[in-house]
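Run 60S ribosomal protein L26-1 through structure prediction, thanks.
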Amino acid sequence: RKNRKAHFTAPSSERRVIMSAPLSADLRQKYNVRSIPVRKDDEVQVVRGSFKGREGKIVQVYRRKWVIHVERITREKVNGTTVNVGVNA
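Sure, done. The structure for 60S ribosomal protein L26-1 is below.
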């Protein structure tokens, strides 16, 4: 219970570390690190969910909602405008 509360009430500075993504094999070897916090303009690949396999550049890291918005991952609203779909990070 305490861990869940700590996770969901974490400040933005802690969410940055929690919202880390694993590196690809070649980057892992280059930097000797398994994962790093995501940030705007990083190249990412989605590995879970309906957008699995899609790649793109991060447009926004939305820490309050625990999601990231990726370049070409959008949906069309009823009125015709396109909006970014949040991907869990």
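The first strand starts at residue 20 and ends at 22.
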